[in-house]
Structure formats: structure tokens, C-alpha cells
Design a protein that fits this description.
Largest sheet: none
Strand content: under 5%
Number of domains: 2
Order of helices and strands: HHHHHHHHHH
Number of strands: 0
Shape: flat
């Protein structure tokens, strides 16, 4: 989630080409140089965060392989998607911030967030199965995803491209903004239905609060010329809405059958016997 927000900071500060090439920062340096200034530090800092995430992802996968092999594939997603996203980020830089590649780079983060939430729920979550809430929560997550995709298209027509010289998407920004707002209203209706169906479950109420706050921020930024700070807040809230909607769905579904924790060495011993 932090990586998503810092990636937005790269875009709204015009630092998308702060490191003008990839995988190096410049043709002669792997890291940021003083000549690149603040834009270089912002872009290179985002790259360093991805490296940290990959290190954590690998450590997570190794730990899960040792203690919960039944969850290995979920852990592997964490270790595998980050390099994929880094490659897409490299293509983004090499294509001079092509807006379609930028959209792909942004949206790739959300399957990673989803898989992390599923893994966390399998490890520490508790479930209160409710088929009606689960169906509504599925609709909520679909509406959130639609709003995210439409939001990236709106951004592609807006002023924050990551660099002033980047071309924008050839769509009508007003029409796209209206579609984005329509998806947000659909989302709000579904969330209200979840609140009612779940008898005001705390996670449903939290999601409702996040969606209302997100709507207020969206309208405020629209009528104030899309200031960079509000864009960052809008993206942070979008990430929280997606994550909370995912968690609510996981809580309302029937708990998945999961094998008991089995360390790798114990499994080997059992096989030997």
C-alpha cells in the first residue's frame, strides 16, 4: 500500500523521469546522482522501496515454505509480482511514461494487495460466514475495481502525467469523470446494502466511512483543479477502500479448508516413517 502511494507521489511531483533510464538510474550510475535533484531522489526512492518489498517477499516465501506449505502459492505471489511490476515500471520509463503502461503499472499493485490480504486472513483471520453478505461484498469488490480502472483513465487525461512533456489519453475527461462518479455511486449503494445485511458490522461501517470520505476528497479535488496533495490522499483512500472491501469479503465467506501448520522438517520425517 505504501508503494502505491509513493508511486503516486512520483507522478504528481513530475518525477516520473527523475531517473531517466532503467534498470540503472542514469546511463552511468545505478543510483541517483546530485545532478538529478529532488526528482531523482523521489523516483529512486520508489525504486528502493520495491527492492525492500522484494526482500520481504522472498523472506515471507521461505518462512511459509518452512511452516505453512499449504500457503506457499499465496506467498510466492508476493515474491513474484514485485519483480514483474518492476519490469513494467522499467518499460514505463523507457517508453517516456506512456499513459497506458502507467495504468498497467498502477493496477498491477492491486492483485498483490489482494493476495497479501488472503494470506493474512488464512494465517490470523476469523470468519463469520454469511452468504448474502458474501455476495454483496463480491459486488462491492467488483465496483471498487471498476472505479479504480475508470479512475486511472481519468488520471490519464488529467494534469499529473509524471512529466510535463508526456502526452495524455485521447478521451473526454468530463465524460470519463462522470463514468468514474457513476461507479462510485454504485459502490456506495452496494456498501450501504452490506451495512444493512451485516447488521452494521464494524468492517462494513469502516468501509462506508472510507467510501464517503473518498467521495468528498474526489469532489474537492475536481472543483479545485486537482491539487497534487489531494491526488495522493485520493489514491491512499482508494487503496484502503480496496483492502477493506477485500477483508470484508474474506470474513463473510465460509472459511477455506486449510492444512495444519507443518514445518518442512516434520513433513520430511513423516514421509520417512
Amino acid at each position: 500500500m505504501v508503494l502505491i502511494v509513493t508511486g503516486t507521489a512520483v507522478r504528481v511531483t513530475g518525477s516520473g523521469l527523475g531517473c531517466p533510464t532503467w534498470p540503472r538510474c542514469t546511463s552511468n550510475s545505478l543510483t541517483n546522482t546530485a545532478e538529478l535533484g529532488a526528482h531523482g531522489w523521489i523516483e529512486f526512492g520508489n525504486r528502493l522501496l520495491a527492492v525492500v518489498m522484494e526482500a520481504v517477499g522472498i523472506a515471507l516465501f521461505l518462512a511459509v515454505r518452512r511452516h505453512r506449505r499449504d500457503l506457499s502459492r499465496l506467498a510466492l505471489i508476493q515474491a513474484a509480482v514485485v519483480p514483474l511490476q518492476a519490469v513494467i515500471g522499467g518499460l514505463l520509463v523507457l517508453s517516456d511514461l506512456n499513459p497506458y503502461v502507467l495504468i498497467l503499472h498502477f493496477l498491477t499493485s492491486f492483485p498483490l494487495v489482494f493476495a497479501a490480504a488472503v494470506l493474512l486472513h488464512r494465517l490470523v483471520g476469523t470468519s463469520a460466514p454469511d452468504p448474502l453478505v458474501a455476495r454483496l461484498a463480491t459486488g462491492v469488490l467488483a465496483a471498487v475495481s471498476a472505479a479504480l480502472v475508470l479512475g486511472t483513465l481519468v488520471t490519464g487525461t488529467g494534469p499529473h502525467a509524471g512529466d510535463p512533456k508526456v502526452d495524455r489519453l485521447p478521451f473526454n475527461p468530463r465524460e470519463l469523470t462522470q463514468l468514474h462518479a457513476d461507479a462510485a455511486y454504485l459502490l456506495l449503494g452496494l456498501v450501504l446494502a452490506v451495512v444493512i445485511a451485516s447488521a452494521a458490522n464494524r468492517w462494513a461501517l469502516l468501509l462506508l466511512g472510507l467510501v464517503l470520505t473518498q467521495g468528498a476528497v474526489g469532489y474537492t479535488q475536481y472543483f479545485n483543479g486537482v491539487p497534487p496533495l489531494l491526488v495522493g490522499i485520493h489514491v491512499a483512500l482508494a487503496t484502503l477502500v480496496f483492502t477493506t472491501a477485500t477483508w470484508l469479503l474474506l470474513l463473510s465467506r465460509s472459511p477455506a479448508q486449510s492444512a495444519p501448520p507443518t514445518p518442512a522438517h516434520a513433513a520430511g520425517t513423516a514421509t520417512a516413517r
